[in-house]
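#struct-help
A.M.: can someone run this one for me? Single chain, 422 residues.
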Amino acid sequence: MRTIVISIGEELVSGQCVDTNAAWLSAHLADRGVTVLRHVTVRDHRGDIAAAFRQAMVEADLVISTGGLGPTGDDLTRFGLADALGVAIERSPEAEQQIRTFFERWGRTMREVNLVQADLPAGCSPLHNPVGTAPGIAHLADPCRICALPGVPNEMRALFEQHVSAQFTRRSDRTVRARIRCFGISEAALGELLADMMTRDRNPLVGTTASSAILTIRISATAESEPEARTMLGHDVSEVRRRVGEAVFGMDDDELEHVVARLLVERGRTVSTAESCTGGLIGKRLTDVPGSSRYFLQGVITYSDAAKASLLGVPEALIAEHGAVSEQVAEAMARLGRERSGCDYTLAVSGIAGPTGGELPGKPVGLVYIALATASTTEVRRFLFGDHLLREEVRDRSVKSALNMLRLSLLRECGDAAPAAG
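D.P.: on it. Structure tokens below:
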């Protein structure tokens, strides 16, 4: 079954919101053996919406739209669909009763404008919405079936599961998927390691995605049965882990802070932070994880030179000689921070996030020093992220690099780290 997904909304076209509905729909349609030809994004314009439906109806067996079913003047999906079908708009008594019942059930006052949501293209039927006021719209005549769903994600998903997925059965073969998360390796290097596994006619199918310095390896295995597909998937996951080595930090939805948190808890270790250019972001990421009080003891933000001296005890002479953004100062911040906190580990960072501050020779915007202090040593690494990155990007990469240094140290503590193959 060939499907086109149409996402409707000015906020999507303008980039004010990210379209998560289309990705969710594609994943769930693939599980049911449905081929998605493309995603189409359309502004809140009646003519554009109608044109998108007309084109999709020519090419697809099933069209699913999301958005534009609310009660306000910019909710134009019902009108665009009516134009595409060449029919008038009619009030649906069934949809009207659904809307009235929803408000009565929750003891809320219904405004007359809400009944606009009961106006459907002639010949279409409403799809009951169990979690919101906007009924979906179904046009199930051959050769192309159309389902218009609300744009609110939880409403869209509820209507899809209740109404849309019932229109087709799962195919006999099964597809299972995994995502392997990596950090500290370039996309080009990763591509070289996995080149033979990434041919487009291969099963399992392997691909990569880069986002904010995190590389995700996508693996999709299809077989006649789920156990067989999972065996194929497991083999490729193991092979990718073997080739990529310690750059692999997690699976599926793992973030670096989740992995670091698990390692700290498993090993019974504690950590503190001493931050300058990141302004407390490392501590925030570490404490975003529930249960962080088991491993995170304290965080110190020493943004100024005076704070580095007074809160951590970094010698003023050291700062004067080498500058706040230097290997020597980062090392002192981590070492002294650990002594004062009594933690097993202390992460320290000092850098130039930009866009200003890179005037001194040899100290450009994007230069960051990260230090990790343990009981036996203090490791310092120099990162040059580049002046092409935005300030928030430099800070984000600094945080991820710091967390990754801690992750690798925790792994090596117990001999768990594996070098990358090749």
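A.M.: thanks! The chain has three domains: 2-167, 174-251, 256-413.
D.P.: also worth noting: Residues 391-413 form the longest helix (23 residues).
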